[in-house]
Design goal:
Elements (H helix, E strand, L loop, with lengths): L1 H20 L14 H5 L2 H33 L36 E4 L2 E4 L4 H17 L7 H4 L19 H26 L5 H5 L2 H5 L1
Antiparallel strand pairs: 1-2
Helix pairs in contact: 3-6, 4-6
């Protein structure tokens, strides 16, 4: 999506505006203007402001929809674990069937392994929260660097090199709400994972057993 916003979206918008005003010539909508004092009072300047506002609205809508889809995708499989409290213990009588079922597709796979230090997962469950939060934050951060389109059209004027569209802020209420939902989802989901892993602590001695010495 970022590639489209940074390249295709800007180029297509700039091309459409240039094609519309290229033959207008001098006047209120002169895209070849070279003097700021004339451009500042022209109708083209106000039109470009309108374009900027509309693009910012479209960008915000796109980001909000993407955030919602991202959070729903990652949160839904975890909803079945919301009944778990921090002191949850896995039923040791059944280590094969899981009481936690979700109708959505599985997003992540990892294996339970054993070492001299005890049971462990091939991917540390605590890392999911860290990585997902980083992806969420990085996505929003990069959306703050979508260039404005009018420097691509008004090539006769000199603009600041860092003119970007206003995007969704990292501390806006809906962003904070989405972030909190992700935190809750993955903090809850690792509770039964840890509880399940603890059930294999009793097999640590068997794993470390020296078979030859035991046979002798």
């Amino acid at each position: 999506m970022l590639k489209y916003l940074n390249i295709s979206w800007l180029n297509q918008t700039a091309h459409a505006i240039r094609m519309s005003f290229r033959d207008v010539g001098k006047g209120w909508f002169n895209i070849y203007e070279k003097k700021w004092e004339f451009y500042g009072v022209s109708k083209l300047s106000r039109f470009m402001q309108l374009v900027r506002f509309r693009m910012q609205y479209a960008l915000r809508y796109c980001i909000e929809q993407s955030m919602q889809m991202f959070v729903n995708l990652l949160e839904t499989p975890c909803l079945c674990t919301y009944i778990c409290e921090d002191d949850y213990e896995w039923d040791s009588r059944d280590l094969i069937n899981s009481p936690f079922r979700t109708s959505t597709a599985t997003l992540f796979y990892f294996h339970l392994m054993m070492s001299d230090n005890g049971p462990y997962y091939t991917t540390d469950p605590a890392q999911f929260e860290i990585v997902i939060q980083r992806l969420f934050r990085e996505m929003l951060y990069r959306c703050h660097f979508i260039p404005q389109v009018h420097p691509m059209i008004m090539t006769g004027l000199v603009f600041d090199k860092e003119l970007y569209l206003t995007s969704v802020g990292l501390m806006e209420p809906n962003v904070v709400d989405y972030r909190d939902r992700l935190l809750k989802a993955y903090r809850k989901s690792i509770i039964p994972l840890k509880a399940y892993m603890r059930q294999y602590e009793c097999y640590r001695e068997i794993y470390m057993l020296n078979i030859e010495e035991y046979v002798e």
